[in-house]
Amino acid sequence: MTSREDPFPSTVLEAMDVEVPVIGFQDAGGFKDIVTENTGVLVPYLDVNEMTKAVISLLNDPELRDNLGKNASELNK
Prior knowledge:
Layout: H1 10-17, E1 22-25, E2 40-43, H2 48-60, H3 62-75
Parallel strand pairs: 1-2
């Protein structure tokens, strides 16, 4: 979620619905209560380096990526 602000996180909810884990910036919108260590990754606000690390981490760990995605989808039901 590369937006600086997303007060109604429709993109986050749509991603979660199709088992895609969310990587977002902390304090960027209304998703901080649903994007947790069980459903995705939050990185410090506008920290592009940490965002990059999180993306690479999930790309390199399909098991974690799948688990986060499944958890996100279950939460979104």
